[in-house]
């Protein structure tokens, strides 16, 4: 449902319906408001607007919250989900690109401190769990089995943090995408950890050609991602008050 509610395309269709229904009999102030709303919606359909939102979301991690280059704390890699149901623990094609990038970044972090524990977190709706596939991939990339641990019961980041509570020391390195890390840090702090952020990748793209200012499907998808993370961060902040 959130795919529809957070999509600029949905907002655009609603805007057209409201404008068509009210324009002829609307007051000047209402027409001005409609124009402003239309411009904002159009902007969020362009890479310019979408990347501005992404940059704002990713700035939610302060420099002091980022992991140092040399650190021996356990590394917690948060799954980025699956494209399809995995047929086996080594069915890597079932992983989303985000999951690939996160586990790759986690392995790179582990190579800086090979004595550290690499924890793959994520359950999912299928019999073969997300973390199981991630762990298999980490072994393929050279991490010894005795340095790997999996958490396979959770269905979201909040549950992952709570499932790991009491099984790891307070200090942990949390590996995820730049857009997801602000929300992830809140979840782990609420669970009693002292997390630092290790960024696997960023969704932000700097201005380039003229296409940066034109509506694009990829920009609308990026706007949806940014809004989803913004609402998720607000939700986690509220839950952490309990």
TrEMBL record:
It holds the Pfam family DUF218. The keyword Translocase does not apply. It comes from the Bacteria. InterPro entries: Cell_Envelope_Assoc, DUF218, Rossmann-like_a/b/a_fold. Residues 75-232 form the DUF218 domain. The chain crosses the membrane at residues 29-50. Keywords: Membrane, Transmembrane, Transmembrane helix. PANTHER family: ENVELOPE BIOGENESIS FACTOR ELYC, INNER MEMBRANE PROTEIN, PROBABLE PERMEASE. This is YdcF family protein. It comes from Lysobacter panacisoli.
């Amino acid at each position: 449902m959130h795919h529809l509610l957070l999509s600029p395309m949905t907002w655009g269709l609603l805007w057209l319906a409201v404008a068509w229904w009210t324009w002829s009999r609307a007051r000047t102030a209402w027409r001005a408001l409609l124009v402003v709303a239309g411009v904002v919606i159009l902007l969020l359909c362009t890479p310019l607007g979408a990347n501005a939102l992404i940059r704002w979301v990713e700035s939610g991690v302060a420099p002091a919250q980022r992991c140092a280059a040399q650190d021996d704390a356990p590394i917690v890699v948060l799954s980025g989900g699956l494209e399809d149901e995995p047929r086996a623990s080594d069915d890597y094609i079932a992983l989303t690109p985000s999951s690939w990038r996160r586990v790759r970044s986690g392995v790179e972090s582990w190579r800086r401190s090979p004595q550290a524990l690499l924890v793959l977190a994520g359950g999912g709706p299928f019999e073969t769990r997300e973390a199981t596939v991630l762990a298999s991939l980490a072994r393929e990339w050279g991490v010894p089995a005795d340095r790997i641990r999996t958490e396979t019961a959770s269905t979201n980041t909040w549950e992952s943090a709570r499932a790991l509570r009491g099984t790891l020391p307070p200090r942990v390195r949390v590996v995820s995408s730049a857009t997801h890390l602000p929300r992830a840090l809140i979840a782990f702090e609420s669970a009693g950890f002292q997390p630092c952020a290790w960024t696997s990748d960023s969704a932000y793209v700097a201005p380039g050609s003229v296409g940066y200012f034109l509506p694009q499907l990829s920009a609308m998808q990026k706007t949806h991602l940014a809004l989803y993370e913004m609402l998720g961060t607000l939700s986690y902040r509220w839950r952490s008050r309990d």
